[in-house]
Amino acid sequence: MGSWSPTQRMGRPTTLAHTSMIATPHYLATLAGLHVLRDGGNAIDAAIAANAVLTVVYPHQCSLGGDLFCLLWEPYEQRLYALNGSGPAPRGATIDAVQAAGYATMPQRGPWSVTVPGVVGAWEALRSRFGTQTFERLLAPALHFAEHGFPVSPLLHAAIAAHQTLLAQHPPAAAQFLPGGRVPAIGDRLVQPAVAQTLRRISADGAQAFYTGAIAEAIAHTVQQAGGVLTADDLAQYQPEWVEPLRTTYRGVELVELPPNTHGVTAMQLLHILEGYDVATLGWGTPALLHRMLEAKKLAFADRDRYLGDPAYADIPLTRLLDKAYAATLRAQIDQQYAQPMAQRVEPNGDTVYLCVVDREGRAVSLIQSIFSSFGSGLVAEGAGIVLHNRGAAFQLDPASPNALAPGKRPLHTLIPAMLLRDGQPWVVFGTMGAHAQPQIHLQLVTNIVDFGFEPQTALEAPRWVSHPEPEGEVVRLEEGFPSSVADALATLGHRVQWEPRWSSAMGHAHLIMIDRSRGLLLGASDPRAEGYALGE
């Protein structure tokens, strides 16, 4: 394996700007957000416009039928806001009902995996409180690409090809993504007229058009026809929730994450454990550092699975989990010469989009949106073109679990937008797709920047690892770029290593914007594992 070095030339340069910046995983979304910023819109406006485009051009990773979480720095108030735009299980969704339908575990696809989609309600909450533009303006680029088409990208082509069987099972999905009964080739024009009609209705009437009326009826009908219990009333009652973000420090830098029902606390625990080591002396990418990170991951994720769920239904000991003295007790359990066994709980892969924006006034947005698995539940709302997510697949059918399925309950989420602050002001706005890998990638990005001083694009391009539980135990997915000696050393310590090709999507699509206040400079980075750019001016 070739060995990567932080001193080698980057695959692409860090983007520099003085006024505003946006980074997303698809170039059309980045351009849409940049145009909004140029036209006088703020960071919230640009984020909604870019996210809307992503629901059209990256339908395997996000859609109007998914969930959203957002962190926002409002400069005029000098305050952070956090929005939880995740939706609950239908009122008819119970453990008994799922088991009566013939399932011993929570189904990963299909109608039982569909919870109320939160993204459109979240857009409305963000736009009405902090935005300056109308939905008609913000959704116009997405509407254009849905109505007139866009070139199918390599990653979308690969996703449709990989899930052709799933899509073919549901006629509305097949009609939308397998036109003419075939997988669209790279560069083919993909037109989605039903999505265009849905976007047109939201442009005119806002979130009400999504959660009531024809769109809500189409969503409910599609789920019920497939055997599920989601109703139009479940949709009509949805409201996103403004929440207080979690805060901690890592080597004097403040880290901000989202609270449960998502697992921002898990990323914080990982960094608390690592803070007790001299990370810089251990050295970037060394077996000694990777082993400590991997063992910390097992401990933090065990706590996640033991405690986290919807706080309205579970008593979550956040104070204890975020106590650095508690992190020291976890650190003491790490054997520096031996890999401990990992609980044999299979975690499904997830598809997500992350984007970040900083505007001319210093407003900063860290936004993440998802349908969980690629193409979500595999269901597309008939007549509305909406890919329905499968976030309910994260529920457990064990009544003792804090994440047990219950009517009106939100599932444990993996979406965690984040920021690093210095002197109470945003310094790095960052996040990544990657489902259960997200806290692990946060750990690597923060240590790359704080401990090793990597500049933004280098921090993203550095090879990554992801620890993944499988029925036979832990598997460490190691991206090409680490020396082969690292894999050999990890194997000697008891880790099972599998190589991932360079720029693998399994390593996440991360993006970030660094704010250098002393120079009045924005430094943007976009992950080459995706198809986007960081652009600014």
Describe the structure concisely for a colleague.
This protein is 36% helix and 20% strand.
Strands, count: 21
User: How is the biggest beta sheet arranged?
Assistant: 7 strands, antiparallel
Assembly form of the protein? single chain
The end-to-end span amounts to 38 Å
Provide the residue-averaged pLDDT.
96
What labels describe this entry?
seven-stranded antiparallel β-sheet, alpha+beta, single chain, 537 residues
Care to describe what's here?
The protein has 537 residues and is an alpha+beta fold. Helix content is 36%, strand content 20%. The strands form five sheets. A seven-stranded antiparallel β-sheet has the order 1-20-19-15-14-9-8. It has a seven-stranded antiparallel β-sheet with strand order 7-4-3-11-10-2-21, with helices on one face. Helix 14 (264-275) crosses helix 16. The two termini are 38 Å apart.
Topology:
Layout: E1 15-17, E2 21-23, H1 27-38, H2 43-57, E3 67-74, E4 79-85, H3 95-100, H4 119-130, H5 135-138, H6 140-148, E5 150-151, H7 154-162, H8 164-168, H9 171-177, E6 189-190, H10 193-205, H11 208-211, H12 213-225, H13 232-236, E7 241-243, E8 246-250, E9 253-257, H14 264-275, H15 279-282, H16 287-307, H17 318-321, H18 324-331, E10 351-358, E11 364-372, E12 380-381, E13 386-387, E14 418-422, E15 425-432, H19 438-450, H20 456-461, E16 465-470, E17 473-479, H21 484-492, E18 497-500, E19 510-516, E20 521-526, E21 534-536
Parallel strand pairs: 17-18
Antiparallel strand pairs: 1-20, 2-10, 2-21, 3-4, 3-11, 4-7, 5-6, 8-9, 9-14, 10-11, 12-13, 14-15, 15-19, 16-17, 19-20
